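Feature request disguised as a bug report, sorry. It would help if multi-protein outputs had a clear separator. Right now it looks like this:
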Amino acid sequence: MSLPEGRRGEAAVGVLASARYGKDKVRVFRVVRDPTSKVHDVVEYNVTVLVEGAIETSYTQADNIVVVATDSMKNIVNYLAKVSPHVLDPARFGLHLGVHLLSRYAHFTAAFVTVEQLRWARIGTGTGSDGGAGGIELSEHKHAFWRDGTEKRFVEVEVARKRDGDGAVARVAGGLRDLLVLKSTGSAFENFVRDEYTTLVEVDDRIFSTSVDLRYTYGEVGVKLGPRGDHEDSEGRKGLGVINFGEENFDKRGTGAVHPWEDAKVGARARETTLDVFAHDESASVQATLYKMGQRVLAENAGVESVGYVLPNKHYIPVDMKYIGVDNTTPLNAEVFTPVDAPSGLISATISRAMT
């Protein structure tokens, strides 16, 4: 790209400090069919893929020779959704995708993959038997599903080539968003700062509702890459990157701790822990309950290094009916509430594993 008249030959006033590009919001839906049982599994993902590396000349010299088109990245996501044996697991699929990109393109030094999973659950169907319990027994339908709420599981994967060229390292975070929860008692908020700006009344029993955003991180692990650049796979296809990818590609470093390859189990435990603490904690505040959640997740998942929560306080305000002589504001008698979306409290924190 030419410079304006009168400025040709002048040095650039800035330098390219960092650069990253890729494809956002790649929507993928995959059906996996078991030919023997006729059972189908489905997953729906929103995928983001970004890369770093020797791509600076596309910015500074308008030279696209180093650019793998973002449309090609979308095609790679779809291709791996077809051939990867890990497509039903968002963490393993994201790791496979990141390793594939670095193995296929030698000038990329890092790949960043975010996989957001939408919830589908099997529809229960009646078997025609009451099971002796007076009700219809349900079994899971083989290929019929329903959208199980707005909650989304996500995985963030970074695969970065080692500077010595011997493999790569993977950094993985997992979590969930938009897990809406509510309990109608077992929560209080008292003894906070009271000054000239305070109008909030202290309460020893209130509705506690929030939309949970949870993010946890693993320790860094080593990853083996495939051959760099153009090469042939076992069937003679050229330049396809790493197709045969599995747990053997990882260096667990002998810790015996949980590993991002097992994120499905960790994610399920973290979700159940979050729900259990929320339900059973006699909450003095959102902050106190959040801290207990994080401590439990760390205690139950060796290898998880930090846990972060963002908890917006979903307010339910008792309707004042004093004008007609009805008490609906004291905690014991408050039964009719007005949900209030905004403004809302917003509480967040990260709990990191203590150094030993």
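(second protein starts here, but nothing in the output says so)
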Amino acid sequence: MKALRVFFLALLLLASPLLQVARCQSDAEAEVTEASDLGIIGDDAQDFGDGSLSPAPGVETVSVFPKNSARSVTAGEETELLVGMKNDAESSISVHSIRASVHLPFDHRLLVQNLTVQVFNNATVPPSAQATFPYIFAVSKYLQPGTFDLVGTIIYEIDQNHYQNTFFNGTIEVVEQGGFLSVESVFLVTLGIALLVLLGLWIHGQIQNLSKKTKRAPKVEVGTGTRDASMDEWLQGTAYSRSLSSSKSKKKK
């Protein structure tokens, strides 16, 4: 039954683009309060979100990114998150504020950023009623892109007692704002171009070395035209040396 209620509340969030509070009465009459009547007043009120508060019995919360199912958050730009609350308690709920923080995914004790505190001065949810509240936040524009954990809580009061519900505790994907190419993309493109230039220079050098080797003239061996001096000395006085001498004299004539 509890899961069915949460599912119904999520459907209500998706079907409610405008903030409204529906008052369920015994005679089935519904009174709707528009967003301007909730009294959103910024973040200068008393801080009750110190982590020591607990949820009130009979109060359920759920949240949804209405235009961003991928939960992709652009650094420096506002993102909308709808917070739904269902009051099954016997008393009315007076909503105090909504706040959130960004943490490293592997350890929530490592806080990255405290986000905007959105405070209300006139937001109530009567018994057996449901309400939807918008929460607008923006992570720092200097936050590096990556995956982070977002923890969102809603602070409220019942019979002068303060309570707190965690409506969101999950991952978001932070991306860089503006521009077609990110810093990482520009770096990778530049590195790729530099590697291609170096590869081209190396190939050009190899081709030039190969062409120089092919242009070198081959050595020509003279066969019988070259005689060893020691061989001439060994043949001196023989018939062979005399025949050579006579042939040379005939060529001179």
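Even a blank line would do. Unrelated, but nice: The chain is about 25% helix and 40% strand.
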